[in-house]
């Protein structure tokens, strides 16, 4: 039986850290050991289940740019699974801070701040993904990355001049005034 997006899936393995809360097999939800395996929350059940393109985008981003792993793990903990549009708010904030040369905020328990992902690597990855023309990927990148970049009067707006040609064209379509 295949579930539809409107049905509530049973707990499944998270694509980065293993099974989500409530799952009985594999590493615990906070584990970072091992390869990216399993089906994300929201995918169809069964061994041949594939994550949605937007969830796969998140998985691929964290695999390619491991500096996002802590942000990802915190996101999954608080959201109960992968919510790509919500996760990308943190990607935007991290990317703009990196562009401005700022470090991520210190953590409340005074542990060392996470390492910021280099903004150039993030933009290169997103440009590569934008070139694929996959609807679910484009929706997340356009709506939850490009749409959330700083406006002209905000610090970090100059990052829009660093976008690759595909993302720059999409940015101009959604925000013609910057």
Strand neighbour order, sheet with most strands = 1-2
Q: From the helix content, strand content and strand pairing, which structural class follows?
A: mainly alpha
Major sheet attributes: 2 strands, antiparallel
State the helix count: 6
| Rough outline | globular
Radius of gyration: 17 Å
Roughly what percent helix? Answer: 40-55%
Instruction: Detail the poorly predicted runs.
Output: 1-46
What is the end-to-end distance?
Answer: 46 Å
Give the overall average pLDDT.
78
Order of helices and strands: EEHHHHHH
Q: What is the percentage of strand-forming residues? A: under 5%
List keywords for this structure.
178 residues; mainly alpha; two-stranded antiparallel ribbon; 6 helices; 2 strands; globular; disordered N terminus
Task: Give an overview of the whole structure.
The protein is an all-alpha fold. It is 40% helix and 2% strand. The chain has 6 helices and 2 strands; from the N terminus they run E-E-H-H-H-H-H-H. Helix 1 packs across helix 5, helix 3 packs across helix 4 (119-130) and helix 3 crosses helix 5 (135-144). The longest helix has 17 residues, at 84-100. It is globular, with a radius of gyration of 17 Å. The chain starts with 12 loop residues before the first strand and ends with a helix. The relative contact order is 0.12.
Question: What is the element layout, followed by pairings?
Answer:
Blueprint lengths: L12 E2 L3 E2 L33 H12 L4 H11 L4 H17 L18 H12 L4 H10 L20 H10 L4
Antiparallel strand pairs: 1-2
Helix pairs in contact: 1-3, 1-5, 3-4, 3-5
